[in-house]
Amino acid sequence: MGIKRYILLSIVYMLAVGLYVYSFNGDKYPLDLYALSLDLPIAVWIIVPVFILFLVSISHLSYYSFKDFFYKRALQKDYDTFLNVAKRKILDEDSNLKFKTKWFKIPGIFIKNFDYAGKLDVSQIDDDKIRQYTQLVEKIQSGSYEDIKKYKLPATNKIFIKNEKNRLENDPKYAYTVLKTCHDIDNELCKMAYDKLLDIATFAEIKKYDFPIDKDIFRKMMERYLDEEDEFDIDINSIENMLEQFNANNEDYLELAQEIKVKLDPERLIKLFRKLYNEKGQLAANAYLYILYELQMIDKVREILENSDEDEFLKFKTLLFLRDHGKTIDTIKFLKV
Description:
Among the domains are: 113 residues, no CATH class; 90 residues. Helices cover 65% and strands 4% of the residues. The chain has a two-stranded antiparallel sheet with strand order 1-2. The radius of gyration is 45 Å and the shape is rod-shaped. 15% of the residues are buried.
């Protein structure tokens, strides 16, 4: 029974009792208490205990009504908090929000330690925000770029990083924007942006960024340099510097010689590998000999081999022997065996 109905029915009951008693006896009864003297109808004295009980019961009901009100309000706040934590978790964000009621403390602990996998059946969830957040994350996980500025996610957030990667995949020129704010070259997003830059930028633009040159980066730039349809250009000194930076070995120099021979004219080609041979010695020796051999400068090859130790350049000595006896083989395959 609601408290309002209880008050109304109690008043009706007291009036009914009072009127009923008064209909039998309308006399008054005096009550002297110290200096206080009351002369009230007997009907009133009859309902006084009922009225006192009424006041006590109203106080009791009011107390528990207020207690229930505040508890329900706490439950509602915890429910709202739970939704907020869930939404932050969907966006891979932690939350410091706390729960006050026992009904949400354990679920709250669980949800704070869960990782959202990117899939959620929201057909039975009636919260529009949850639906919105899950649909947003699913789009990003599937490769779509979305505007998420209003969520104010930090740069370390997984959803933010994935969304930025999606934008780089869809718009490689966005790499210029990402790299403007890159202060850590080991950052995953910065590395991806730099990798995208290698596909679209000029060599002069690439050099502006202080990323260490490794073999993969060098190979990627050389592929563009050797592509006749690509206007990407690298000067010879830069090629030498990059070889130095990633500590190129024998195979790297030989591979470079095999590929770059179609790009440079014979004079520049010989000049480049003669310089590398003079500076790097044995590291670039096979590459230099290969260029001389391919350009049919056999006398120069013989000169270098004759001045070498007996156990040096055995493969090239074998090549000359086979050539002198009219045998031909795939030079580069033989050298790489």
